[in-house]
Amino acid sequence: MMEQYKGADFGELSPHVFAIADVAYREMINEGKNNSILVSGESGAGKTETTKMLMRYLAHLGGRSGVEGRTVEQQVLESNPVLEAFGNAKTVRNNNSSRFGKFVEIQFDKTGRISGAAIRTYLLERSRVCQINTPERNYHCFYFLCAAPPEDTQRYKLADARSFHYLNQSSCIEVEGINDAEEYLATRRAMDIVGINEEEQEAIFRVVAAVLHIGNINFAKGKEVDSSVIQDDNSRFHLNTASELLECDCNNLEKALITREIVTPEEIITRTLDPESALASRDALAKTIYSRLFDWIVEKINVSIGQDPNSKQLIGVLDIYGFESFKINSFEQLCINYTNEKLQQHFNQHVFKMEQEEYTREEINWSYIEFVDNQDVLDLIERWIDCASG
């Protein structure tokens, strides 16, 4: 099917994402014009799958052998399952919802062959690591790891996914159409292709397991006012296991969870935390660890694929998660929805407003096309931002 759209005039064949990708590629080759393709829509509309199709088509048009026999385009395509494992989750409307924004910059040489690529990610939904609601799930990788072969789960001291607080807040543990055990192995294979070696994979999944164990550490009131201690032997087990997996001192980890340091010009003051504050400290640590792990994986993929510093031609593909409204919406969700509103306004401006203004100027006989203008929504948010910053 890809061959049908290769070089075909735009509009000659049935509408398809391949046609959009082909136009972008031909303009780049023939006119030296760099292009970006923005994929937008509501959650569950198929943005991520559309992005994959765009990338497959661009990989079909230009391929180049990479290091150790791998092709650059193969590495770019195989980065998808890796990023999905660590950045996608089941939501109310989508079983494989992207919980981060992704801009893939595909670089081409003078002959139109892919010579490098770079992946940039934005706005990973950190709050999902420690807070989910039915019928949603946490990030896929947690469930994949809990369903891993026994030798792996034993090494990380993991049990059934239902035994971990960060996963059992939702009654949804399994998703129809997703075999977590098979996806774990598929993720490991994809990691091999994108250049993440066995030792690095081991370190990655140690961190994933450590986050789960951190979530099972609970606290009780300490002897002093507004202080806390590790609640029981079960919490102590998870604390010890997390410190082993993270290769850090157990006492230092415990201290980091139940105390807070305040730095003043004169001294460093250590304050104890009550159980509620200690839980917040625990969750903040888990979110930070996971977020930094995700950033490291993206950086590793970029290093492995390699960028072409001499490339003057590129096509960018943007895939961000869609507009959503949950039972409980965090500040992150406001940022996500605001970004979607801005993209929609950009679309409205270029597809409807500017075109229809031009028709009016040129006195073309046409019928006005009604569309929903979301400028009022943007004005409401942006004026609030101006007030807050002022």
Overview of the molecule:
ATP binds at residues 41-48. The chain has 390 residues and is an alpha+beta fold. It folds into three domains: 2-214 and 288-328, Kinesin, CATH 3.40.850; 215-287, Myosin VI head, motor domain, U50 subdomain (Four Helix Bundle (Hemerythrin (Met), subunit A)), CATH 1.20.120; 329-390, Up-down Bundle (Methane Monooxygenase Hydroxylase, Chain G, domain 1). Helices cover 51% and strands 13% of the residues. The chain is built from 14 helices and ten strands. The strands form four sheets. A four-stranded mixed β-sheet has the order 1-10-4-5. Strands 2-3 form a two-stranded antiparallel sheet. A hairpin with a 4-residue loop joins strand 8 and strand 9. The longest helix has 31 residues, at 275-305.
Keywords:
about 400 residues; alpha+beta; Kinesin; Four Helix Bundle (Hemerythrin (Met), subunit A); two-stranded antiparallel sheet; about 50% helix; about 15% strand; Myosin_head_motor_dom-like; Kinesin_motor_dom_sf; myosin
Which runs of at least 5 residues are low in confidence (pLDDT < 50)? none
Query: Percent range for helical residues?
Result: 40-55%
**What fraction of the residues are assigned to beta strands by DSSP?**
5-15%
How many structurally independent domains? 3
CATH superfamily of the largest domain: Kinesin motor domain
Largest sheet: 4 strands, mixed
- Average residue pLDDT: 93
What structural category do the secondary elements indicate?
alpha+beta
* CATH architecture type of the largest domain: 3-Layer(aba) Sandwich
Cα(first) to Cα(last) distance is 55 Å
Give me the count of strands. 10
Number of helices: 14
CATH class of the largest domain: Alpha Beta
* Strand order of the biggest β-sheet: 1-10-4-5
| Structural shape | globular
Give the CATH topology of the largest domain.
Kinesin
